[in-house]
Write a structure and sequence with these properties.
Blueprint: H1 2-35, E1 45-49, H2 55-64, H3 71-80, E2 90-94, H4 100-108, E3 115-118, H5 125-135, H6 140-147, H7 150-155, E4 171-174, H8 180-194, H9 197-205, H10 210-223, H11 230-243, H12 250-257, H13 267-270, H14 294-301, E5 310-313, E6 321-324, H15 327-343
Antiparallel strand pairs: 1-2, 3-4, 5-6
Helix pairs in contact: 5-6, 10-11, 10-14, 11-14
Amino acid sequence: MKKVFALKQKWIYALIVAFALCIGGLGLYAYRLAYAPNFTPNAPVRIYIHPEDTFDAVCQQLRDSAHCRSLSSFRLLADWMKYPRYIKTGCYAIRPGMSNLEAIRMLRGGQQEAVELTFNNIRTKQELAERLDEELMLTADELLAFLNDSAWCAGQGFDTATICTLFIPNTYEVYWNTSAPALLKRMKREYQRFWNPERLKKAEAAGLTPVEVSILASIVEEETAAPDEYPLVAGLYINRLKRGMLLQADPTVKYAVGDFSLQRILYVHLEVDSPYNTYKYAGLPPGPLRIPSIQCIDGVLNYTHHHYLYMCAKEDLSGRHNFARTLSEHNRNAQRYQAALNRLRIR
């Protein structure tokens, strides 16, 4: 009996050990499947999931960009958690040491990483739409459908010529898959935040609306390459507006001609019949020549109070200007500038 009992005990111990080993093995497998680090990029990387992307396409990004060590384990856990049924568009950050479970929960839950949206040095609606197309999931055509819709623009307080003044160049955190309507709502909020009571008061003091400030700023920014000249140039144009004088701003002629590369404005250019040609039409043009920077908008709002009515590029071709109160003084400045162009054979 003792031998039988001892034999039973050995079997029981063996079963316990085998069970423990089995549980331990399953636990280790579960740990490796769900909790062990499975992504080894050198630094956080972003993957972008488009509406048409399949589960295989997501896996390929995880392999190629996020350096997934065991794609089979990711696939197995993702299938078990039904992620292929719930693929969500967006931009997602995969960090070094991330586990399968962390990655799947993030992807399945749509826990996106915000992207920094920056746009500057933009002239036209087409350029703006293409820039945003490059940085976000939306398309240029989707955005242009709104920006060229006169009814929609009117509802925002603009028209199709001035709608670009809605966009204040800055860096914004947005989700990569934000829609065109959602982005435009965000830009409207940023516009309203930018045009705070202080800026509105300065615009009113200058006799301008916020849209007119942006239009004038677009001329000023095209006119001078020196930001410290912004307030001076703005003051000159405001002086001319108040006196009912033609602005006679060369950048508006370039815009009317459709060639910003012009180095010399000729009489034939001045005769172009366009509402943007301020040598022919009084007041501000119907829309901005570009989307002006915040620095230039503030330069207009804080314009210098002086008596200058004329300006001409300096003869050193530095991009800076000589300012004048009288036409005779201006003509002397212009003669020096024209002589410099002639010496360099700039036509």
